[in-house]
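Key result, reporting period 2: structure in, sequence out.
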């Protein structure tokens, strides 16, 4: 397949996709919004008034869902390498989650302990499968550090992962760190995609908690 015909195929599949059409109609910035909606309907992730940290939030579909769920008394904090258009109720920071200065910013933004960390992050695809998977695993590890650092004791961590190298060890790591871990493939996730979502609840320990006395 040439690059051009590949792009044409992607475009055709994208415009015929029922979740793309539904997202456009409902005003969601991404079809991915429906993955989070489904997971919340099934596993009751969000509650009114919660703080949510959205890692890799752009263009903002998940942040939109999170703000709807936590309401005006809640707070959503979103970080992405890419710019993200402003959104009411969302504190946005453009940057790499690996950048240590992000933590100073989060500490300043946080109004109360974090209830949910969501990560839909994906690395830029190079086309070299092993390298792409290794880059993805690095992102999962960083997201897990975020979750363990900021989540309160009843907190939940939702993360997109890709089946392949590093998948099972990461699942085991989550099982060690959280009291319950569920694996889910939402309907909006394409069957051909290796992506699935891990939902981890109730951290067993929080080694790096920020401002311990405040939380
Ligand atoms: C699939 S998109 C997220 C879509 C989003 N959940 C939505 O519903 O609109 C993945 C995002 O992860 C971001 N990302 C990848 N690596 C990152 C990093 N190191 N730090 C911050 N964001 C990152 C990408 O820039 C990209 O926007």
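The corresponding designed sequence is given below.
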């Amino acid at each position: 397949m040439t690059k051009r015909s590949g792009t044409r195929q992607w475009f055709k599949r994208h415009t015929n996709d029922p979740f793309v059409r539904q997202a456009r109609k409902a005003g969601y910035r991404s079809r991915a919004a429906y993955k989070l909606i489904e997971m919340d309907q099934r596993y009751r992730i969000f509650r009114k008034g919660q703080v949510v940290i959205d890692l890799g939030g752009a263009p903002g579909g998940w942040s939109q869902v999170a703000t709807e769920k936590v309401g005006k008394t809640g707070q959503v904090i979103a970080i992405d390498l890419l710019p993200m258009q402003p959104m009411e109720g969302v504190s946005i920071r453009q940057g790499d989650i690996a950048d240590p200065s992000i933590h100073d910013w989060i500490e300043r933004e946080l109004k109360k302990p974090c209830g949910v960390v969501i990560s839909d992050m994906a690395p830029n695809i190079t086309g070299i499968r092993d390298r792409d998977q290794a880059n993805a695993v690095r992102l999962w590890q960083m997201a897990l550090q975020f979750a363990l650092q900021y989540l309160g004791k009843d907190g939940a961590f939702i993360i997109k992962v890709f089946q392949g190298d590093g998948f099972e060890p990461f699942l085991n790591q989550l099982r060690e760190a959280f009291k319950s871990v569920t694996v889910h493939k939402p309907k909006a996730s394409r069957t051909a995609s290796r992506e699935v979502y891990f939902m981890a609840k109730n951290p067993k320990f929080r080694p790096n908690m920020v401002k311990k006395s405040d939380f």
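The chain is about 40% helix and 25% strand. Strands lie at 51-55, 75-80, 90-94, 114-119, 151-162, 178-184, 195-203. This case is discussed further under Risks and Mitigation.
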